[in-house]
Amino acid sequence: MPHFAKDIRTVPNQITLARIVLLGVGVACYFQGQIGLGLIFGALAGVTDYLDGIIARRTGQVTYLGAILDQFSDLLLEATCLLLLVEHPLGPPPWLLLVYLFREFWATTIRRFMAAHGIDIKSSFLGKLKTNMVGWGFIPWFVYVTDFIPVIGPYAHILGMIGLYGGLAVGYVSGWQYTRQFIAGYDKLESAD
Q: Which residues contact residue 10 at a Cβ distance below 8 angstroms, ignoring those fewer than 6 apart?
């Protein structure tokens, strides 16, 4: 059986694909006014980010496809949530989406470029921390903007701001780490020519 067909069927990769489906269902619920269900599906989508990696490592099912799908699913989840938030009057300012996208496009581009030249820029602890802070910061922010649990709204807003703004700050620090690795790798590539 070809590698792609085999790898797409692994349990961890199926869990990663489920993240995309759960996100879609959560967004549909959000637009239908089913805020609670949307939050539940969004949180479940976030939990799959832990499950796929844990299961892949414990069962020896770590694949290149899994790494690609995981990164894509993370970016899709984060960008979708941020897009929904910035369009809401109580959400963060729209320019924040551009700040987020700039970092993500840059980090993805330099990591893929170096990978194409045999140099692996692995995800750093700070990069993973960024993903967690931003991802879990969305839940309280959605609780706030949708007035889902009014009594905790102001506190949810503060938690959401800490998660999102703090996560983006950590993301830029990790982006700088990736950039330094890119520069060192690029210099090696140019020296080899």
A: 56, 61, 63, 66
Domain boundary among 87, 109, 125: 87
Q: Are residues 31 and 98 in the same domain?
A: no
Looking at residue 192, what is its pLDDT? 82
Q: Crossing angle, helix 35-59 and helix 11-31, to 10 degrees?
A: 170
pLDDT digits (tens, 9 = 90+) for 100-116: 999 999 999 999 999 99
Number of structural domains, the chain? 2
pLDDT of residue 2: 86
pTM over the 0.85 mark: yes
The whole-angstrom separation of Cα 32 and Cα 163 is 26
